[in-house]
Design goal:
The structure holds two protein chains of two kinds. By secondary structure, chain A is of the alpha+beta class. Chain B has one domain: Methylamine Dehydrogenase, Chain H, CATH 2.130.10.10. In chain B, the strands form seven sheets. A six-stranded antiparallel β-sheet of chain B has the order 22-23-24-25-26-27, with no helix packed on it. Classes of the chains: A alpha+beta, B mainly beta.
C-alpha cells in the first residue's frame, strides 16, 4: 500500500468517524427533543418509550374480513333439517355459502343452492313444501320452494340465527341475534311481521307440533353489576297471539344453543352452560367453574324450570349445543361441541327426579354432578364440534352436524352408536387456521376437559361475563371477557397489556392460570394463534340512525375542542387512545377505574357489553355518565345528552 | 288479596244512576273506587291504562294491575326504577312501557328492563308521558322528548337545541303513523312530521299568560299539559282551558264559558268524537254538543252536571264511589271509563240493563 493510499484511508476513516459522530449527535439530539415531542403530539403521553417506533408505525391493516384468507373453504355445516318423509337432509353449509340437499339413502349431496353470507339455520315445513334458511351475516331469511330450491321470499332480520316454520310454511319464526328479539313473520306480508323482545342473543327456537308454543333459547346472560350472579332466559311465546307468555330465568346459566319442545308442548328441553363466575378461577381445579346442563322447562303457566347437569364428577362434557327430542318424547340428545360427544338422556328419568324432589332438594340438582348417572343413557363419540342435531321423522336416526369435520354423523338412536358418516366434501387438508379452530373448540386442552376457549369466547366473541382471575385464591381480580374479533394487530393483550403477543397470551402462563393443564405444544400454539388472528369482525350493519346524528357523533369522537372552544389535551381526546384504523393506541391507560389497562379496539363495540376492564359499565352511556369521574375517560363533561347519544350512535356503528 | 279487594270494592260502590236531561246518548254511570284497601300501593294514582282484560294503575308507590278480580303490585323490588309511576303505554307486542319519576321501564313477559338518563339515551329520568308508534317509543321528559328505536336500540333526543321547543319540559306526547304531537310546557304544541322529520308549532297567538285574549284564535295557552289526536281532531289540555283543532279551525273551552269541570287540565282522552278531560275540578265528557261533568261536592256527594248545546244546565246529585276531583288521567274501557285520582282509582261503569258489576272483569 502506498503512502498516498494510506493517507486516503486515514482520511476516509476520519471522515467516517466524523460522519458517524455527527449522525450520533443528531440522533441523540433528535431522540431527546424531536422524538418525545412527536410522541407527545401523537399520543398525548410522556411515558411512552420513544424508541418503540413499531408500536405505532408497524403494519396496522384493518381487521380480517369475514372470509377464509387461505383461499380454502370448508363446508362447516351449521344447521340441519330433515324432510318430513325422512328421505332428504338439508344442510346449511356456512363455510361455502350454500344450502345442501343430501339424499339420505345414498349419503350423497344431490343438489345445492347458493345462500350467501353465512347460512346458519335451516327449517323445513311439516308439509315439506317450504324451506327457510337464515344468512347470519346477510341479515336475511330466505324462504325456498323445497321442490325447486328457488327463493320465494325474503325477510330482513338482524343477524338471523335459529328458525322454525309453521306446519304449512305460511309463517316463519326467527331468532334475531343482534336484535335480542324473536321475529314472527308471514312471508310475502311484511306488515304482518312482529318482533318480540327476547333475552340476550336469542339463538335457537322450537315450535310445538300444534303451533301453540314457541320456545326460544337465548345464549347470553343479561349484563349485571360485578359481583352479582347473572342469568339468561328461555322465552316462551304464544305464536298465535304474537305475545310473550313467560320468561323462564336460567339462573347462573347461559350459552343455551339448542331447544326442543315435546310432542304435546307440555315441556321443553334446552342446553345450557352453568357458570360460576363469582368464584375465583382457582376453582377450576375443583371442577366448580362451569358445567354442562340440560334444562327441563314445564311450559304451563308458572311451571318449573330445572337445570340438570350433564357432566359427571371428574368427567366433563363441555359446550352443549344442539338439542333433539324423539317423537315419543322418551329420549333427548344433546351435542357437546367441546367434548366431541352426543349425550343421550332418558326423559322419563328426568321426570322421576322432578316428581321425587321439590324445593331446595330440587334446586340442589343443578349442582349435583353425581346425579347425571340417573338419566344419562349413553355418551356417543363424534368427530370435531358436533353442533346442530336433527332427528328423522320416526326418530330412529339422529343426524349430527360435525362442523369442523365437514361431515354428518348418523346415529342409530336405539343402539346409541354412529352407524354411518356423510362426508360433505371440502378441501381435504387442514390449514393452520382450521387446525387452530379445532383447538379453540376442543375442551380436552383444559383440566378434565371442563371447557374450551369458545366456552368464554363463543363465535370468537365474548360471553359477556365478568370472571374472577384471582390466581392465588385470595381477593378478587375481576375481568370482563374481551371479544377476540378483529384483534390480530392489536397487541399487547390481556387487560393489563402485559402480553406482547397472542403466543404469550395463550402460552404456558395461561395454562397455569386458567386451563390448569399442560400448555399447548409450540406447533399447536402456532395454529391456535393463526386461528385467533383470523377471527373476523362481523359485517357492519346499517346504523338506522339519522345521518346527522352519525356525523355529529363522528365529529365528537374526533374533536379537539370542547363545546366552549377550549383545546382538549391530546391525551383526553377519544381518537388519541382509540386511534383509527384499529381504534386502539395499543397502550395502557388510566381511565379512572383503578389502574392502567389496555386500550381495547372499538369494532363491534355495540355487542360487547358490559364495558371497562371489570365490566362495571353496563352500557356505553354509563362509561361517561357514571364511571368517568373528573373526565378521567376523555373529556365528556361538556357534552349535552344529545351529543352523548350521538357519540354512542357513532361508536355502535364502528 | 281477593277478599280484601272485593270487600273494599263493594264498600265503595254505590250506584248513581243518572238520566241526563240533554244529550240523549249520554252515559248513565255508577262509580266504584279502588284504593289501598283494595290492594293498591297508594291512593295517589297518577295514571291508568286499559290493556284488554288488565287495568294498569301507576301510583305514587308503585305499579298495580287489576285482573281477574285480583290486584298485583310491582315496586322497586320487582324491578321498577322508581316508586312513583307517572305514565303508561302499551306496544302492539304487548310490552308495557312505564314512566316514573326516576326513569323509564319496559315490562315484557314479567321482566323489567330499565332505562335511565345514566344507563341509556333517555333525556331525563322524570317521565311525564309515553306514546308507542310501531318500533318507536316516544317519551316526554322534563328535559325534552326522547325516542327509543326498539329495533336498533338507538336513542334520539328532541329538545330546545334541535326543535322549535322554547322550553325543555315536555308534558305529554301522542304519536301515530309517524306523526308526533308534543305538549311542551310553556311552548304550546309542536308536531313532528313523520316523513320529513321537520317540526312545526302551535302557539297561543295572543301570547298572554293570564288571559285568553281572543277566543278561538288558536291554542288557548302556551302552558300545555295534555294532548290527544283522534278522528282527525287534536285536543290540547292546558292549565288554562281546553283547545280543539280539526285542521281548519280552533275552538277554546274554559270553565267559565263551557261545561268544562276546570281549567287546570291534567289529561285528555278522545274516541269516536268524544273527549274526556281530567281536571283538578272533576271529570268532563264532551261530545261536541253536550258536556257531562262529574265532580264531588263539598258534602262528598257526587254531582253530574249536564250542559246542553242550548246553554241549558241541569244537575243531578247523589251517590258516591267517585274518588276525587283531582283527576290525573282517564282511560276508556269499552263503554266504561277509568280515572286516576288523588284518592284512588275510579271506575265509571256505564249502566245497561244487561250488565252486573265488574268485580270479576
Amino acid at each position: 500500500m502506498t503512502a498516498m493510499s494510506k493517507r486516503r484511508l486515514r482520511y476516509a476513516a476520519a471522515g467516517f468517524v466524523l460522519f458517524m459522530s455527527v449522525l450520533g449527535l443528531a440522533g441523540w439530539v433528535g431522540a431527546n427533543t424531536w422524538l418525545p415531542a412527536h410522541v407527545l403530539n401523537k399520543t398525548g403521553r410522556t411515558e411512552v418509550p420513544a424508541g418503540l417506533c413499531a408500536r405505532c408505525h408497524a403494519r396496522r391493516s384493518p381487521p380480517p374480513a369475514p372470509v377464509d384468507n387461505t383461499g380454502l373453504r370448508y363446508v362447516s355445516p351449521e344447521g340441519l333439517a330433515v324432510s318430513p318423509d325422512g328421505a332428504r337432509l338439508f344442510v346449511a353449509a356456512s363455510g361455502i355459502d350454500r344450502l345442501l340437499e343430501v339424499d339420505l339413502s345414498t349419503g350423497k349431496t344431490i343438489r345445492s343452492v347458493e345462500v350467501p353470507d353465512r347460512p346458519y339455520g335451516v327449517a323445513v315445513s311439516a308439509d315439506g313444501r317450504r324451506l327457510a334458511v337464515s344468512s347470519r351475516d346477510g341479515d336475511r331469511v330466505r324462504i325456498l320452494d323445497a321442490a325447486t330450491l328457488e327463493v320465494r321470499d325474503q325477510i330482513e332480520v338482524t343477524e338471523p340465527l335459529g328458525l322454525a316454520l309453521s306446519a304449512d310454511g305460511g309463517r316463519v319464526f326467527v331468532a334475531e341475534g343482534l336484535g335480542n328479539a324473536v321475529v314472527l313473520a308471514e312471508p310475502g306480508s311484511p306488515s304482518s311481521t312482529d318482533r318480540l323482545v327476547a333475552g340476550m342473543q336469542p339463538y335457537a327456537l322450537a315450535l310445538s307440533r300444534d303451533g301453540h308454543l314457541l320456545a326460544v333459547a337465548n345464549r347470553l346472560a343479561s349484563p349485571v353489576t360485578p359481583g352479582v350472579l347473572g342469568a339468561s332466559e328461555v322465552t316462551l311465546v304464544d305464536p298465535r297471539r304474537n305475545r310473550i307468555l313467560e320468561r323462564r330465568e336460567l339462573r347462573s346459566a347461559h350459552l343455551s344453543e339448542g331447544i326442543a319442545v315435546s310432542s304435546d308442548g307440555s315441556f321443553a328441553l334446552a342446553s345450557a352452560v352453568r357458570f360460576r363466575n363469582l368464584l375465583p378461577l382457582t376453582q377450576v381445579a375443583r371442577g366448580a367453574v362451569m358445567n354442562s346442563a340440560v334444562v327441563f322447562i314445564e311450559t304451563r303457566a308458572g311451571g318449573r324450570t330445572v337445570q340438570f347437569p350433564l357432566d359427571e364428577v371428574n368427567a366433563f362434557f363441555a359446550d352443549p349445543s344442539g338439542v333433539a327430542l324423539t317423537p315419543d318424547d322418551r329420549v333427548a340428545f344433546v351435542a357437546h361441541m367441546g367434548a366431541r360427544m352426543v349425550t343421550a338422556i332418558d326423559v322419563r328419568a328426568l321426570r322421576e327426579v322432578l316428581s321425587s324432589r321439590e324445593g331446595p332438594a330440587l334446586d340442589a340438582v343443578a349442582d349435583d354432578l353425581g346425579i347425571s348417572a340417573e338419566y344419562v343413557l349413553a355418551r356417543i363419540p363424534t368427530r370435531q364440534t358436533p353442533r346442530a342435531l336433527a332427528l328423522s321423522p320416526s326418530g330412529d336416526r339422529l343426524y349430527v352436524a360435525e362442523r369442523l369435520a365437514d361431515s354428518i354423523a348418523v346415529i342409530d338412536t336405539t343402539r346409541f352408536a354412529v352407524v354411518e358418516r356423510i362426508d360433505l366434501g371440502g378441501p381435504g387438508r387442514l390449514t393452520p387456521e382450521r387446525r387452530g379452530e379445532r383447538l379453540f373448540h376442543d375442551a380436552s386442552v383444559t383440566f378434565q376437559a371442563q371447557f374450551s376457549c369458545r366456552s368464554c369466547h363463543p363465535d370468537g366473541h365474548s360471553d359477556g361475563l365478568i370472571w374472577d382471575f384471582e390466581i392465588d385464591g385470595v381477593g378478587r381480580n375481576l375481568v370482563d371477557t374481551r371479544s377476540l374479533r378483529g384483534i390480530r394487530d392489536t397487541a399487547p393483550f390481556k387487560w393489563n397489556g402485559k402480553n406482547p403477543d397472542l403466543a404469550t397470551q395463550c402460552g404456558p402462563r395461561f395454562a397455569r392460570v386458567l386451563t390448569r393443564s399442560d400448555p399447548f405444544p409450540p406447533d399447536k400454539l402456532k395454529d391456535l394463534v393463526a386461528f385467533i388472528e383470523s377471527i373476523p369482525v362481523p359485517p357492519k350493519r346499517p346504523s338506522h340512525a339519522s345521518a346527522e346524528a352519525l356525523e355529529s357523533g363522528r365529529q365528537i369522537f374526533f374533536r379537539a375542542r370542547t363545546n366552549d372552544g377550549e383545546m382538549i389535551p391530546r391525551a383526553q381526546r377519544c381518537n388519541t387512545c382509540h386511534r383509527p384504523p384499529l381504534f386502539t393506541d395499543r397502550l395502557v391507560s388510566d381511565v379512572g377505574t383503578g389502574g392502567r389497562f389496555d386500550t381495547p379496539h372499538l369494532f363491534d363495540i355495540g355487542s360487547t357489553a358490559p364495558y371497562l376492564h371489570d365490566g362495571r359499565a353496563m352500557t356505553l352511556e354509563e362509561i361517561w355518565t357514571v364511571h368517568s369521574p373528573e373526565d378521567s375517560h376523555g373529556i365528556a363533561e361538556d357534552l349535552s345528552k344529545v351529543q352523548l347519544n350521538d357519540l354512542v350512535i357513532y361508536l355502535r356503528s364502528l | 288479596m281477593f277478599v280484601r279487594f272485593a270487600t273494599a270494592t263493594l264498600a265503595t260502590t254505590i250506584l248513581l244512576c243518572v238520566t241526563p236531561a240533554a244529550g240523549g246518548d249520554a252515559p248513565s254511570m255508577r262509580w266504584e273506587t279502588f284504593d289501598t284497601a283494595a290492594g293498591l300501593p297508594s291512593n295517589k294514582v297518577f295514571t291508568v291504562l286499559v290493556d284488554g282484560p288488565r287495568v294498569w294503575a301507576g301510583t305514587e308507590e308503585g305499579l298495580a294491575v287489576l285482573e281477574d278480580g285480583t290486584v298485583r303490585v310491582f315496586g322497586t323490588a320487582e324491578g321498577l326504577p322508581f316508586p312513583a309511576v307517572t305514565a303508561l303505554a302499551v306496544s302492539d307486542s304487548g310490552d308495557l312501557w312505564v314512566g316514573t319519576m326516576g326513569g323509564l321501564a319496559r315490562l315484557s313477559g314479567g321482566r323489567f328492563d330499565v332505562f335511565t338518563q345514566l344507563n341509556s339515551g333517555l333525556a331525563n329520568n322524570v317521565v311525564y308521558g309515553i306514546s308507542v308508534d310501531g318500533p318507536a317509543v316516544w317519551v316526554a321528559t322534563a328535559a325534552g322528548l326522547s325516542r327509543y328505536d326498539t329495533r336498533t336500540g338507538n336513542w334520539s333526543i328532541f329538545d330546545t337545541t334541535n326543535t322549535l321547543m322554547h322550553e325543555p319540559w315536555t308534558y305529554a306526547v301522542h304519536a301515530e303513523d309517524g306523526t308526533v304531537y308534543v305538549a311542551v310546557w310553556g311552548g304550546g304544541v309542536i308536531v313532528r312530521d313523520g316523513d320529513t322529520g321537520q317540526f312545526r308549532e302551535h302557539r297561543d297567538p295572543d301570547g298572554e299568560m293570564e288571559i285568553d285574549l281572543f277566543r278561538d284564535d288558536g291554542l288557548v295557552h302556551d302552558v300545555t299539559s295534555a294532548i290527544r289526536v283522534a278522528d282527525g281532531v287534536m285536543w290540547v289540555g292546558t292549565y288554562f282551558g281546553l283547545s280543539r283543532y280539526d285542521g281548519r279551525r280552533w275552538r277554546s273551552y274554559s270553565e267559565e264559558d263551557s261545561g268544562l269541570a276546570g281549567d287546570f287540565i291534567n289529561y285528555v282522552e278522545a274516541r269516536d268524537g268524544v273527549a274526556w278531560i281530567a281536571t283538578d275540578q272533576g271529570l268532563s265528557r264532551f261530545d261536541g254538543r253536550t258536556w257531562h261533568t262529574w265532580r264531588l261536592l263539598e258534602d262528598a256527594s257526587l254531582e253530574l252536571r249536564i250542559d246542553g248545546p242550548d246553554g241549558a244546565r241541569t244537575k243531578r246529585r247523589g251517590g258516591s264511589g267517585f274518588p276525587s276531583n283531582m283527576i290525573f288521567c282517564v282511560a276508556l274501557d269499552g263503554d266504561d271509563v277509568w280515572v286516576a285520582t288523588a284518592a284512588g282509582l275510579g271506575h265509571g261503569i256505564t249502566e245497561r240493563p244487561d250488565r252486573s258489576n265488574t268485580l270479576n272483569r
